[in-house]
Design brief:
single chain; about 190 residues; alpha+beta; Ubiquitin-like (UB roll); DNA polymerase, domain 1; five-stranded mixed β-sheet; two-stranded antiparallel sheet; 5 helices; binds FE2/S2 (inorganic) cluster; 2Fe-2S; 2Fe-2S_ferredoxin-type
């Protein structure tokens, strides 16, 4: 049962959840409204996996070190093991399942496949989510920038080189697509 107490310093009442109290959380998962129940102490990573069935998100260290649990929260890459499920209420969460919504691999996933950028795959979902965020913010990174971004992830299998190659390949492919779109738009403007 919830009880009400004074909020720290505010003089206003604040709701306090009991340790084993279940709370219903509603959020947007990969573009779809979802809801489920969690305890106040439950990690977002566990809520996604066990309550919402989004098992593509992996859990390694649970200390914010390995990066395996990385998801996007309102578009920004974040460790889901460092966030409580209750903090995700009414927010938009993207997981690796959202990269292939129609059952087709997204360009990042396809590049990882072509470059053999995964072996056991335990780290892969988190790395993909960081890359998805990063390439939106830095569309044409250098190799050094990609390696710096990947420093937030631990991969015991690949040695990182094929991952770097895959990310740079995607960045180059997207740059070519943007240039082709730009040229097509200019041609249409000339024809008009
Ligand atoms: S499980 Fe979250 S960073 Fe390792
Ligand atoms: S592919 Fe095995 S830990 Fe990265």
């Amino acid at each position: 049962m919830s009880k009400t107490t004074k909020g720290a310093g505010s003089g206003k009442p604040a709701e306090v959840m009991q340790r084993h109290e279940q709370r219903r959380i509603t959020l947007t998962l990969n573009g779809r409204a979802r809801s489920g129940h969690c305890e106040p102490r439950e990690l977002l990573s566990d809520f996604l996996r066990h309550e919402l069935g989004a098992t593509g998100t992996h859990v390694g260290c649970e200390h914010g070190v390995c990066g395996a649990c990385t998801v996007r929260v309102d578009g920004v890459a974040a460790r889901s093991c460092l966030m409580l499920a209750v903090q995700a209420e009414h927010r938009s969460i993207d997981t690796v399942e959202g990269l292939a919504p129609a059952g087709q691999l997204g360009d990042l996933q396809d590049a990882f496949r072509r470059h053999h950028a995964l072996q056991c795959g335990f780290c892969t979902a988190g790395i993909l989510m960081s890359c998805a965020d990063y390439l939106e913010r830095v569309p044409e990174p250098s190799e050094a920038q990609v390696r710096d971004m990947l420093s937030g992830h631990l991969c015991r299998c690949t040695g990182y080189t094929p991952i770097v190659a895959a990310v740079l390949d995607v960045a180059a492919g997207r740059a070519r697509a943007r240039a082709a779109d730009h040229d097509a738009t200019r041609l249409e403007a000339c024809d008009a």
